[in-house]
Write a structure and sequence with these properties.
Order of helices and strands: EHEEHHEHEEHHEHEHHHHHEHEEHEEHHH
Largest sheet: 5 strands, mixed
Shape: globular
Number of strands: 13
Amino acid sequence: MKQKTIALVDGNNFFVSCETLMNPDLKGKPVCVLSNNDGCVIARSNEAKKLGIKMGVPLFMIKNIYKNVVYLSSDFSLYHEISQRMMQILQNYSDKVDVYSIDEAFLDLTGMDKVFNMTFDELARKIKNDIAIQLGISVSVGIANSKTLAKLAAHKAKKLNETYIIENHLASYELQNIPVEEIWGVGRNIARSLRKYGIFYADEILLKDDNFYKKNYGKKGLELKYELAGNSVIPLTGIEEKPKSIQRTRAFPEFSTDKDYIMTELELHLHNVCKKLRENNQQTSLIYVMLRTKDFRVFIKEEKLDFMTDSEMVLIKKVKNLFEEIFIDGIVYRSSGIFAGNLQETKKIQLGLFDIQEQKKGTGISVILDKIENKYGKGVISIGTSGIREIQNKHKRIMRYRPF
């Protein structure tokens, strides 16, 4: 079995880091980023962690206790933008980059030490420094000979705010005192089952023979043992799996009854959804509009299209009509969102005679809009009437673009 060298790059307090990048005054302060509906904490700065604030705790339980903490509504459009730029930097180091989550990616670095004429430790530090310099955020880098061990190495690196390498001959030592439920890919049921057989810690998994895992857990169980032993059996392809749906939602900085303002929020979400469709080479035939009220009631209206499209110029009328159907004057709203479903790859779509005309409509303008944004920054030009810039100013989320 050919030995691989796998790295996992993981953003440190990623959502908070993105917010601090936009607002440097947040640096050194206790900061919590909240879920879409401002319901609970989904990211914390180190200062907030030191105060004892837990992940997932509801806002209403802590806001009167930790009054000096800065609580921010999440801005997933911003986070996705910075994530995309981070992944582009990683592609400079490997042609196989598997995006695992918005702030994590596996890289196949096999042989790259010779390409860059560096040790793997030096290469890990270079990746970390390049992201810090070019993008302005901190990441942890873990390196090992399998995905599972790389995940563990990254976890150790995060505690040190550094890089960490797990050597194969030290794998058993590194796995000591790590409960089985903390191993990447081991869920509660598997952990409970392993404990029944006297396996409580990760290093104890290596002590059982292959037949034990074949009999009790099948292929997945055997893969777990091999991965922990430093044998790469979980493939890293470099092919990003296309999403089956795309959504963009965001809480308003202040509750609102303003119809024009809420519509402009939806225009911004629609643009971001369509831009993501074009980046993925996908199109949609199902669009949803969502409004959430101050008291958390949710109103959703959908429309199935007779054609596929990736253009906000085509979809904007549909969105406006759906918005008119669910918006109620006098109701106080807290957030809005756009969802696109029934996604297909553009090259696989079979178009009818009338679909071709509908698909072409607005596509050229959308592509030009993307090019202008990529060159001059997000929000320099927008669809609709009230403009994306006003919304960005209200959210205080204007992206400070830096060239690579």
